Amino acid sequence: MESNSLINDLRKQEGIKYFSxxxxxxxxxxxxxxxxxRNRDIENLLPSLCQYYGIMPNFxxxxxxxxxEEALNRTDINTILISRKGIDNKKLSKSLxxxxxxxxKSESVNAIREPYLEMILQQAAxxxxxxxKDSLECITPLAYYRLPKIMxxxxxxxxxxEVYLELALNxxxxxxxxxxxxxxFFRGKSLVEIKQWQEMIKNDLYLxxxxxxxxxxxxRLIYKxxxxxxxxxxxxxxxxxxxxFGIRSEGLYNKYLGISNxxxxxxxxxxxxxxxxxxxxxxxxxx
Length: 287
Fold this sequence. Notes:
- Helix content is 47%, strand content 14%.
- It is α/β, with parallel strands linked by helices.
- The chain has 2 domains: 2-133, no CATH class; 147-283, no CATH class.
- The protein has a 4-stranded parallel β-sheet with strand order 2-3-1-4, with helices on one face. It has a 3-stranded antiparallel β-sheet with strand order 5-7-6.
- Strand 6 (250-254) and strand 7 form a beta hairpin.
- Helix 1 crosses helix 5 and helix 10 (216-227) crosses helix 11 (234-245).
- The longest helix is centred in the first third of the chain and has 22 residues, at 2-23.
């Protein structure tokens, strides 16, 4: 799928930049790298490959299962997590840094080579990475599996938000299998129901951008995409937004969009709307 190819390419480019920083003596003090692998000897193989490509192995490697909160937040050295059992998002959420997750696509537990990793290191050795800020800025956070703060998503332009949600949902449905749990927006829905749901979300996005009115169903989608939390109840999400906006949900109407008495928030009535983005981000309320 094209969107997943784009996201995976972003992750590869960010991985190249990560090891390029190490090569140039810099600490990636805003990123914790996690490698998904079946390779039993990766702890020995990675330093050897780095030395082969002229990259000093200035990093520590810790297993995902045993990593401490202190190790997740070290800023004095590069931290690389090794995971053979998937990603524990609750554990990663304790890190203040961006978790860059790269699936090495290891085919064997006894592999003595890691072609995907070697490609990353080879390009890092020559500082061969790019970042097209104009076209990638709104979706770059997807490379890290830590999506933007909730209010950041509400504030970005309608087109960017639509593209972002589409890419995120495609990623959730296909390549997010590295997580122990995945978000189930489409569980039990037929193709017709999925298409109808997508059309409703598009109308909700237009309503948000044109009238500053946020439907509860779009709010729930934004919340779950921004937190990768599928266990939380709709009631809890409603309380979250009610507290942030300082208003209750009400019936929203737009005849042109076919929206009639759909529960949501009229952000024009919020006494905190101009402060909400900064308030939420400052307290880390993306959970």
